[in-house]
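2.7 Reproducibility. Because tokenized structures are sensitive to small changes in the input, we list the exact sequence used for Anti-sigma regulatory factor (Ser/Thr protein kinase), including any N-terminal residues retained from the expression construct. No trimming or masking was applied before prediction.
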Amino acid sequence: MTGAALAVTSPVHVTQARQLAARAARQAELPDTVVERVALATVELATNLVKYATDGMIVVMPGPERLDVIATDRGPGIEHVPESMRDGFSTTGTLGIGLGGIRRMADEFDIYSSYGEGTTVLARWRSAAREEAPDAEFGVAVGAALSPAPGETSCGDSWTSARCDEVLTVALSDGLGHGPEAAAASLAAMEQIAAAPAASPVELISAMDADMRPRRGATVAVVQFHVAKATVTFCGVGNTTVRLVRGDGSHEALVSTPGIVGRRQRSGRRAMPVTRPWEAQSLLVMHTDGVSERWTPADRRDALDHDPATVAGWLLGTYGRNRDDACVVVVAGRGTR
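Resulting structure tokens (single pass, no recycling of outputs):
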């Protein structure tokens, strides 16, 4: 799936953020009245980043029958989040619609802030025909955030999810390099998921490998959730980070096979799957190497308890390297939130 991100550091970026979000809302075929709400909420989020934040970013993520707008930054954070939701609250004497107004305009709203570190705000709008995420029937919620490398207009990282019977497959891809060719490699890999969502992760990666030989190649992570078995199966190639967090707070890194999809078979390596139990309180985080691995689930459980899209935005905003394409995908059991 595609998305877009914009660094917001000056007033001109507020207008650009509004245009970006409104365009995505129209492409998602949201009603005109909803497009207006998306645009107004995005203006407020971007204005807050300009006024208060360091390294602010707006991320616009279309998803299955929904649109997410995420604002994330690296500080200074909000000391009293409940008070900041009150109408008329301002630390600079200005009167915008505020966070409380954004919450009323959105179908769903979430905020995570760590004082002294940063804030991530999620505003979500759903299509009129859908009140709940289509993945809810699988007992999971999925959220994502991505941004292109500086100076690029297309992101070489991509992700997707697809459903078939009692199987939900979620995948992440990092096309080699940057720009349109890297984006084409990632999208080609993700098309294999849509073509055969019930195929095993090993079969899917093999199909990507065969299809991508003429292209630049990519690193790929594939996870598959089985409702009836209450399991998650992972298989990956290359340097993506995948962490499974259990309900008791323990966590495990799921390790990929070294290599590059599209070139892996030449080296003789074979991707090896691993299967683990999946609980209502489980959380799975995947991200490309555009995001630092220097975060520990046990130390940031307060952040990981939020909506998966909020978690993805927070990881991207806080740990993004700001020199490469980056993508984060978070899958949460429905009992986590």
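The domain at 135-333 is CATH 3.60.40.10 (Phosphatase 2c; domain 1).
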